[in-house]
Structures are given as structure tokens and as C-alpha cells.
Amino acid sequence: MCRNDFLLTMKKYFLILFLLLLSGKAFSQETAVQSQETGNNYQKAEFPGGDEAFQQEFMNMVYSYIDMALYAIQGQVTFIFNIDTKGKINKIDVLPKFKNNEMFIDDMKYAAKKVKGKWSPATRNGIPVDSKFVMKVNFKHNTYDHD
């Protein structure tokens, strides 16, 4: 009787282990960014002066208002900005995730609010829709270089 209990317990542990490993794949972080729709009926979001103007203005605000020494970021960081139907940035994601990630995102939201100029929202069939703007930045010793 004791051996059967042991085998039953081991089967439960193996089942739990298998399900945990399987769930790790299901909930793993997706790092690939989906490309925006293209076509005749889709118009991407636009910032006055273009994407380069936004990138320059955003990074100027980051270095003007945020103490980047708190984060000691080295290497490439991808910012994913969600632009709502009114042309406002309502969410920012940062990849890869790192220590103090939430505090960093809050600081980036603050810098984004300081950017002068408003996005024209993306449209599909002439109707404003939410969209994403992806920006890659290389951080090196308190400097940056954006792609």
C-alpha cells in the first residue's frame, strides 16, 4: 500500500512539473514586435516633422528631466509607444525587461508628456485607430544613439 501511495504522489509531481514547463512556454515574453499594417486603407500615425523629430525630442526630454544614472542602462533598448485614437501616447513598453523596469517606464511616460507636438493618429478607412510606434535606442555611458 505504501508503494502505491509513493507512485501516485510521484505521478502527481511529474504532472505538475510538466504543466509548469508547458505554462512557461505559453507565458514567455514575446520580444518580436509586430509590424504595422500597410495597405491602401491604413495610414500610420504621424508626428509633426516625422519619426526622427519625435525621436530627437523624446530623447532630449529624457536627458533633460530623467536621471539616467539611476538605471545604468547599457546596450539597445526598444521602446514601444501606443498611440491612441486622439494622438496621445497612452502606454509605453520597454524591451528587454530589467531591474527597476516599472520605475523606468514611469519616467519615460513623464518624458513623453513633455514632448511638444501631438501625433496624428493612425487611420483605417478614414477612422482613427490605436497604433504602435517602435523606437530602438542604444545607450552607452550616459549617451544615446537611436536607430
UniProtKB/TrEMBL annotation:
This is TonB protein C-terminal. It comes from the Bacteria. Gene3D superfamilies: 3.30.1150.10. InterPro entries: TonB_C (IPR037682). GO terms for biological process: transmembrane transport. Residues 72-140 form the TonB C-terminal domain. Keywords: Signal. Residues 1-28 form the signal peptide.
